[in-house]
Amino acid sequence: MTRLPPQRGERIDRRRPVDFTFDGQRVEALEGDTVGSALYAVGQRTFSRSFKYHRRRGLLCCAGQCPNCLVQVDGAPGVRACTEPVREGMHVEHMNASPSLDFDAMRATDLVGGPFTPPGFYYKTFIRPRRLWPLYEKVLRRAAGLGRVAKSRREREWRTEYRRRHADVLVVGGGAAGLAAAAAAAELGADVVLADEGPAPGGRLLAEGGQDHAREAAEHARRAGAELLSNAPALGAFDGLVPVWQGDTLHQVRAKRHVYTTGVIEQPLLFPGNDLPGVMLSGGARRLVSLYAVKPGTRAIVATVCDRGLDAALALIGAGVEVACVADLRADAASPAAQALVRRGVELRRAATVLEARGRGHVQGAVLGARGGDGHERVMACDLLVVSGGGAPATSLLCQAGARTAYDAERGVFALASLPGGVYAAGEVAGHGELHAAELSGAVAGAEAAHSLGLGDADSRARAVAGSERLSRGPVGPSGVAVPPPVAGDRGARCFACLCEDVTAKDIHLSVEEGYDSIELSKRYTTTTMGPCQGRMCQLPAIRLMAAETGQSLEQVGTTTARPPWQAVPMGVLAGRPFEPAKRSSIHGRHRELGANVMWAGDWRRPYDYGDPRGEALAVHDAAGLIDVSTLGKLIVRGPDAGEFLDRLYPNRLSNLRPGRIRYGVITSDAGRIIDDGTICRLDDESFYVTTTSSGAGAVYEWFSWWLADWPLRVHLTDVTQGLAAVNLAGPRAREIMAKVSAVDCSSEAFAYLDGKQADVAGARSLILRIGFVGEVGYEIHFPAAHGEHVWDALLEAGADYGLRPFGLEPQRLLRLQKMHILVGQDTDSESTPYGAAMPWIVKLDKDQAFIGRWALERAAEEPPETALVGFTLPDGRVPKEGAAVLPESGDGQVGQVTSARHSPQLGQVIGMAWVPAGLARDGAEVTISDDGKRLRARVVTKPFFDPEGEVLRS
Amino acid sequence: MSYVLTCPNCGPREVTDFSFGGEVNPRPTTRPDKRELGAYNYFRRNVAGVQREWWFHRSGCGAWFLAERDTRTNQVLLTELP
Amino acid sequence: MSLDFLVPSTAAVARSPMEREALRARARLETRDGWTVAVSFDEPEAERRACNETVAFADLSWLTKIELQAGAADLAAIVASCTGGGRLELGGAIRVGGAWWCPYTAERAVVLCEPGAAARVRDRIQEAAGVAGGLASAVDVTTAHGALAILGPLSRELFARFTAIDLRPQLTPVGGFRPGSLARVPGAILREAPDRYLMLFGAALGRYVWTVVSDAAERLGGRPVGADALEPFEERVPEAASHA
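Above: the input entities. Below: the structure tokens describing the complete assembly.
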């Protein structure tokens, strides 16, 4: 391996060799190399095959911006070789070429497949005959995509640390301007974070002789107190939240002010053969030389539109590369760099550019001539073609943050036109390319950001103003740029506008012809800018082509909307933590120990059953069952106006509820629709205990407190949902079991149905509600959650002799269905009224108190509902699916639906609830249910299936 | 949607701390006719511009408050207790 | 009293919502004031190191918590009466009488104290509430919230892993009380001392919050510690001077 003599500021450590493998072959590299520089140093020139046509691609930018060097590293696909540091023993493999990079069978698509794969080909080809689609799909799937993901899950695992970082000022971009901005803001006392995508701060300085300057500037910023992050690209700007990805950490930076110093992106030139390996951006060639001491070629031709290319030519000469000719598109290039080249005897052609690159598999020569390609063309041999189409300001993040750009015809780029409040731009992205101007603009921006936060003093403000004035006076940007044509010459042949997606200039022409003549449409149709480079290489060239095709100005064509992520990022970085917020009752551990099958019910984990749902349900009828209902919403409503408050929110009366009594309540919206249901127990004159459905707890608290914010009532609400555990002990033996754990008199005279009493249960102070969701005599015991296991254990122990069994949600659902107790949200939907839901008795329109929903319910009372909720039985044993349609007597369509259905072992038949046409809501009526295409005849039942008169419940 | 909302009690928080309560929609003061009732229950102005709306600090103080927010840019102009 | 059924009694075992998690991490439990408390993990050296050098977390769910609600003027009067003239400002909690008084809104606050001091605090509140002009409520919410102490120099780094609440010292001084989302669930953070915080969250989320905190702490070289590794809640920080 040969390297150039030691370069000032080189990143390699020649004393520390590093070995890795590339496609199984051992490669010798040096510590500090990237995979790209190491491979280039040993002669690798083809780094990948292009996406669609599988054309050879070589190093182009050496800065992680183009797609040409994407490889697979240690099983992770989509890694850019030109920025990935080498590590001892790493396994690098090529992507998108089979069987090898040098011989790729898929190259056939380039040679013959063109007609089958024009832009939007998936709308045109591979469609007929339809029966061949499975084959087409198989072929296309194999051909599509870049890289392979490991099959083994363990190999794919990725752990990202998420770290929230608040800051006063976030500086994005760590070049000269960014470092100056960070230092300036930090010196004024701001809490500053700087995020830079490079391995060390300094940006372009590092490869262009400014490494000492970069180091000092970084030190200065650190000493001032700024936090500098390296290898940390910002992924996007989300309303002021900027995620910065650094290795296996995602910094979620929320800063008050943002300074973007993201620089420019060097642009390629468009000409036939522009994607050949050996065609390299001037910055790329310089980086190979300066950072890695790698000679990019032996005989080079340079084609440029600005001084960047000239500076690169000088650097190449310094590295011993023969520069055969420099073609400068500018008619009058008279800068110091031009003069230096001429002094060295380099042929410098003005008003000239490259019209074509030639070579098989690698550039071997170039055709140079005047723009437009009229006459005086020369073919010259070379093994390196360095191009520079100028620098396009990297405005994507700025635009995501709300900045606007406008076309600058002089520079031929889209430049910043306006910034939203709180956002600043400095350095090359803002048009200040010269080093001192860049640093000054950075310092001014940093100071302004700090000042806007109230930091600094009169002196610092005066200095910032002076700096700003100096900037507006001085020269802006590089000394002249020539705007390149959309395509050099008029050869028309294949030149690639979008390297990532293999979109040629001709493809863009075609898309316009087919009518996709706006930049957003053409982008989506051709997929230009949608690849790994996200438009870095191709946005501007594509806009130039569109302008030429449509005859519009570039300003009229405009840019596409900038979107995140700006940098390609692995899904694992965005996946979030694998912890799901799960609520669990304080008794949950016992359920697990009892072998419960646990399910999600809203955001709670609940026992579905304990392995025997039938047996558990039967036990409630035969002996007793115990179910954990801690998930119920529980609200304390207290105050002198508590009764009135509840009367305003419920359609029935609650203010006349006596202390120690319970009433069922349904909450209706102002449209008269059922929102939630539950029980209300009056504790004393001024206190009520309201329960809600498990999933409705939050919504009911919000609903109650919202109205309370408006009504001048003396009421306090306290949400104790998670503070109290609750269990329901139900069955014929429940009374006896209660007697063993509590001194409260459970005789039916002393403790009647719908009574609520406070007493100790197993030593825990409790509120006992005698209600009957499951149809048997039952006691719902509410007590402090901390006593959960204690009380549960005591009850199970006390009930052991009586055959007490715990039961889960599934048997509970069956039991409540036997009683036709509705589940809000399952048996009702957002349009259900109490009238439709067969509980007209709950709406007390004669109540004095105005209540939410009254107006709508008064109207609903006048018009009978179209559909009504009823129970039904089915003679044969088939249980229809929930949601099964209820069919009309004749004709097509659906006139209702099944909301719940189960087979009841206690009753020995299939029961359910359904919405049916109101006319059929009477006992004995027959309705037809369609379940998976099978028609079933059901019989309507309007009273509960089990214990219709509620005698068992009240016993 | 990642903007910051300033709760009048707790200070600035990520917008995900809060439940959105909809645009301010005054309740009829006298018995509305059918059309007025329908409009109140189902129609909203849904302005593209500054909207006065309700927010609930679900993850924090549990208070309801009002905000004025430009629905086009998510810029929040003010928040205040009702 | 009608709301007695909210208050844990010493006649029945009271367990923290994170007790099983603590046991899995090999905590040793002791019964104190009716609660089983994870007093130690029997690794005094490692526990001490975590508290002083990295980050430690301890289950303090057994702390008594009382939610106070009253009109703004009444609440201010009750607080002043119970704290010898103390005044609550939004965002700032005060420590008086062995208890932290933490404001949510101008009309709602939560009082945190050790179970042993609870009776005294409750009595004072009852007395003060009795002379309030309007409605005043004091509801025991001890079992509705779990509580974790977070301590050590990496405390803020730990919080940064799961909350967007800004805990930079210049913005959350000692005494700062910050209700907001923690690990995607409602909660609050109280800064008790320069490197000691108390986080509150829904009791039903105990296992989930322990998992999140434990995972984050482990990555930072920290660990759970027992209640005995902490200086007593009541006595540690000198009483705050009365705020006029």
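Note for the figure: Chain A has 27 helices and 46 strands.
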